[in-house]
Design brief:
By secondary structure, the protein is of the alpha/beta class. It has one domain: 4-Layer Sandwich (Metallo-beta-lactamase, Chain A). Helices cover 37% and strands 21% of the residues. The chain contains eight helices and twelve strands. Strands 1-2-3-4-5-6-7 form a seven-stranded mixed beta sheet. Strands 8-9-10-11-12 form a five-stranded mixed beta sheet, with no helix packed on it. α6 crosses α8. The longest helix has 23 residues. InterPro entries: Metallo-B-lactamas, NDM-1-like, RibonucZ/Hydroxyglut_hydro. Keywords: Hydrolase. Pfam families: Lactamase_B. GO terms for molecular function: hydrolase activity. This is Hydrolase glyoxylase.
Amino acid sequence: MILYQNDNITVFQSALFQTNSTVVATDDCIIIVDPTWLPHEINEIKEFVESIKNERPIYLYFTHGDFDHIIGYYAFPNAKTIGSENLHNHPEKEIKLSKIRQFYNDNYINYAQPIQFPKIDLIISEDGQEIKIGQTTLRFYHSPGHTKDGLFLYIENLGIWVTGDYLSDFELPIVFDSVKSYYNTLDKAEELISKFEFSLLVPGHGQVSSNIEEIATRIELGRSYLKRLQKAVQNNNETEINSLEKEFSFPSGFTKYCHESNVTNMKKEFSFV
């Protein structure tokens, strides 16, 4: 379904995990972000792009390589792809593809589309690297922590900021890469909102926001959770560690897995033991 729309941006939200897929239209190009989840949802995005593109080139940008963010790659075979160098060199490409297959099988979904890991045409290797398409300026920033291959996008002309799996209104930090890197990415996010003019934040999951104060609150909520977990781990406070798991919205086997990953990475990086 369409979560948010104005003259330049349409944000589609899946029924699953409140996952967002974004289409940005400028005079120069169409930018698609993380088309995802169910085949009919991906097809809705594809049909929308077909209806608005005219002669404009299509760019397909991946915020990171988690399987839920790359599952719709097949739908845009003629798009120029954009991703981080770490996405391009991802060490677990086949594992991500096996998760897509497992998702289809677990949910009895018939699929004919090819299951492929994105081949990246435009590789972002430098922090702050720009891609200019006519008068449209795309500026990219590395955002490791959740995953090593994370990549923010700031669309300069429109003030649109796409953050992938950071700065959700409900989802706590999920650390599959590095807690220290996650802290640094939150610091970077704070720097960016003081440096640029923003009209809209689009996270990978949850609600968009045009309120700078609310965005700053999201950053601080993520930092607060990590700091409290760090303190609990360093103090070997199992009661507090278990209590922090209960702060996850929609408690499930998945959120338990995410919490355990956070604890494991926290112990690896910050434990006094």
